[in-house]
Each structure stands twice: as C-alpha cells, then as structure tokens.
Amino acid sequence: MKASPSIDRLSGILERFRVQAQLHHSGALCGLNHFDACEGHGYLHVLRRGQLKVSHPGARDLPKSMHFDEPTLLLYPRPFTHRFHNAPVEGSDFTCARLHFDGGLYNPLARALPPLIALPLARVSGLDLALELLFAETDRVRCGQRLLVDRIFEVVVIQLIRWLLDHPLEAGVRPGFITGLSDPRLARALVAMHDAPGEPWSVERMSECAGMSRTAFSNTFREVVGQTPADYLNDWRMALAQNRLREGQPIKVLAEELGYANPSALSRAFSAKVGMSPRDWLTKTSVGSDE
C-alpha cells in the first residue's frame, strides 16, 4: 500500500535526525573480517561481486549465519556484531560505510528498523544511478572523493528507506512509524505530527488529517503502528526533546517548541517516559559518550 506521492514522508524525520555515512572500505575483502558492536557504528555494506557468508555471534534475533551469492545490500542500522567470512585469496568485492544516526539508540528511525536488512540490489528500484556513481567514485582516487562518497552513501540510505516505506512487510519491519507511513491515510496524520510536534494534537484533529472517523483512525493506528496515537505523539516529542537536549537546547525553549505549557510539564512528561529528569538524563548520556 502506497501513500500519496504528494506527501513527503521522510524529510520531516531526516531533517531532525540526520543519517551520516563515512566510507569504511572499498575493494576485495579476504578471510575473516570482524565488525564489532562496541565500535558504536551502524554499517551499510554493498556486496558488488562474489559470494559472502556473514555470521552473527551470540545473536538471538538474527540467523547465526547467512549466505549471499548475488549483488546484495546489507544495512545494520544499529551497532550489531557481525563477521564476514570470505575466501582467503581473491575475496569478494565490497563497498562499505559506517553509519551514524543522530541520537544513537534514541533515533526513532534506527529504532524502527530491524537489526539487519539484506536485499538483492536488483530488488530495490531507484538505486541504479546512485550505485553507479558510488562505484565510479570508489574505483579510483580523485579530488574530494571521500567527501563525495560519504554523501552518495547517504543518498543510498535515503533511497533504501524510501523503498522500505512502500515494502515494510517484505523487509520484515515491525509495527511502528515506518509501517504507519506506508498507510496512505495514517501517513497524512503522521507527517503532520512530525512537521508540527508542538501543535495541540487531539485524536479528533489527527483523524481529520487522515480523513477517517475517530474510531476507525484510533483502531487502525493501533493495529498498524502498534500503539495509540497519543502514545506515539508523546514518544515523538520525547525523541525530539532528547535530541535537542544533546544539542544544548534549553528546556524552556523546548517546552514551547513541543507544545508543553511550561518547562515543568515537559520535565514531568520526560521523567515519566525516560525514568529520569532531563538534567539527569543529559548528564548520564554525556558521561556515556565520553567513555
């Protein structure tokens, strides 16, 4: 099911929670290559040629090993330990990037995606031109190559997410805002909330955006997204608050931006959701990022 093409379902999210890519490797990978979750990166691997066996040591929600024998894209949106097993000589050909989602584990997009998305390149329409440019840039060194390659990788990520919005079940996406954005009616309400989180969003107003009755909207939203509209709105506001706090935004300004009567009201909502005050949370996350 596809949303109306007149609705931009991604920009409101990506403008607030950027995805940044950094070239990690281009060329053959031979033998065993280890990508440790402790490094704190997500990864985007493009298997250009050859075969690949990837293993997930200790993983509970992914197969212990997987095999690929055609050009394939593998996206690990969150830090996740994985190992590539390739031939010891003349290994398969890869182009890989480290990924950083603004907010880390608190990024709503990274949290909504499964731990791994593995898709044959031929299945994802719209990737051809970006990948052609990506491979052309990584095949030989030219001025500004690294910066350009990083930006192209980010384009590939956006194109992949765009594809996921139209094929969430095929990609194994759990109920959440991605499945919600795949519904043409719910998408209108979700985009409106993403773009204007500080507005007074009653269920009636949300349902009007969706063009549905209040009851039908509430039931459909809960079934497709996995939570009530009010809970989703609260989670979205808290994700924005966390991201903006990390950027140094004062709680007073945040309260006005996110639709709370005063800083105390935002602090109470934050504590109820996160389990600690904004000040304590910011101190904890700042210490954790320095370790």
Automatic annotation (TrEMBL):
Keywords: DNA-binding, Transcription, Transcription regulation. GO terms for molecular function: DNA-binding transcription factor activity; sequence-specific DNA binding. PROSITE patterns: HTH_ARAC_FAMILY_1, HTH_ARAC_FAMILY_2. SUPFAM superfamilies: Homeodomain-like (SSF46689). InterPro entries: AraC_lig, AraC_XylS_family_regulators, Homeodomain-like_sf, HTH_AraC, HTH_AraC-typ_CS. Transmembrane segments: none annotated. Residues 187-284 form the HTH araC/xylS-type domain. This is AraC family transcriptional regulator. It comes from Acidovorax temperans. The lineage of its organism: Bacteria, Pseudomonadati, Pseudomonadota, Betaproteobacteria, Burkholderiales.
